[in-house]
Amino acid sequence: MAWGYGQTSNVTARDLATVGVGGEAVRVRISNAFGNKPLAIAAASVGLAASGAAVVPGTLHPLTFGGAPGATVPGGRVVYSDPVRMSVSDIQTLAISVDASGSELVTVHPCCTKIVSYFTPSWMTKPTPDQV
């Protein structure tokens, strides 16, 4: 990996990402571009970011990949989620959560933008029916 920054084990990572142009649906790209082994995604979600790691109530949507709740991203590749119908404004910030199974190297990419991330043990992030 080009920029190692530590290792995680069975965590959910929530990244805050600001979209440039809004729309009526969202697709999320998950990259393993610098990986040398597959990245196992057990589950993922997207919602409108509130403050800190919080999501605006009622906006959290599970992501699917070809209809499945998870995916495996081969080393050096990317995967795209299925579209999620949700209204997003220009320059709005999304909270994207990815539950990675196993142990993964976390990378940093200081070249482009400031990305805020939050990490939570996976067992704490299983959504209840009112959170989805």
Molecular structure report:
With 132 residues, the protein is mainly β. It has one domain (4-127). 0% of the residues lie in helices and 50% in strands. It has no helices and 10 strands. The protein has strands spanning 4-18, 23-26, 29-31, 39-48, 61-62, 71-73, 78-80, 84-88, 93-107, 116-121. Strands 1, 4, 5, 6, 9 and 10 form a 6-stranded antiparallel sheet that branches. Strands 2-8 form a two-stranded antiparallel sheet. A two-stranded antiparallel ribbon has the order 3-7. The protein is globular, with a radius of gyration of 14 Å. Mean pLDDT is 79; it is low at 123-132.
The total number of structural domains is: 1
Low-pLDDT runs? 123-132
Based on DSSP secondary structure assignment, what is the total number of beta strands? 10
H and E order = EEEEEEEEEE
